Input
Amino acid sequence: PVLSALELGGVKIARDDVVRDDPTNNVPDSIFSKLGMQLHKRNQHPIGILKNAIYEYFDANYSNKFDKFDDLCPLVSVKQNFDDVLVPADHISRSYNDTYYVDSQTVLRCHTSAHQAELLRDGHTHFLVTGDVYRRDSIDSTHYPVFHQVFVASHYLQPPNFFFLGFFLRFWSIHSYTLLLEMQMEGFRVFSPEEWEASGLDGTSYAAGDLKKCLEGLARHLFGAVEMRWIDAYFPFTNPSFELEIYFQEKWMEVLGCGVTEQEILRNNGQLDSVAWAFGLGLERLAMVLFDIPDIRLFWSNDERFTSQVQLIDNFTNKKGMTSHCYRIAYRSMECSLTDEEINELQRKVREQVETKLNVELR
Ligand code: PHE
Output
């Protein structure tokens, strides 16, 4: 049975408004039924776990500078999804073959970049947007018409060392209190091409380097060591553009697109001359690598042995202030039933890792 209505990000959505027998509509019930699932908001689900790990990286390395949006409605206008991010009128991604249209002016977002322009207009300069995205595609082990994407954008990049230069130049003439205020404001101002030049770099090459550094750091945070490579790419909204690929199951797999944000987008949305980068990362494919999940369809499983494999079942602190946790882990293979010996071996490895990595005492 398909729900007749749901509420998303404060927007009420009726099934009959999204699934209609009408030539401007190509949304089937099977897709409508995915709209309210929000796997990225389930902390026990692999998609939620990965999203939280990405947020952790940004909070830790950028001292909570990034605003987070998890609940933006996936029904967006054609303008938001395409025009605002400069997708050309004849671009193939606009076709009814590739995108789900609710009517001629409304689509199910095909990327979380659809929210970039409105967030800029609302004055956000550093943000993470996570959500379900929709693309008409045939289904196989690494493709599914619904998946989850984290979009990240960082604006107002500053020339490296500018801070210290500015500090010393002004040191003699300005009272230290004013100086402090000024230092805080540096993060939110635009640097002129001359200032960039004085730093020995142009804004675009600096942004490309800063972006790659950020993403390589993220990959290390998530994977430790992993084989990865950068590929030159094309996106209408960034220039230059790149894709990051990760080696998985004996092939290179694309996991994200990124680049230096086109000035036209910044200009159109009130951020004249800001230097910015952005990326869009597909959560399913990364989670497949990270958790060794062999098939993308498994993310939609309702089987609790998949959706919550580890559960904290007891949490106790004794008089000395030592806390003990008891976890239940469901071991399960997609290929065969596991034997006791196989599970014991897995359990032994988990205990060993927990002991060394988390520095805890095992019981
Ligand atoms: N929107 C692109 C996609 O879905 C990813 C991307 C985001 C690329 C931001 C560049 C900058 O494939």
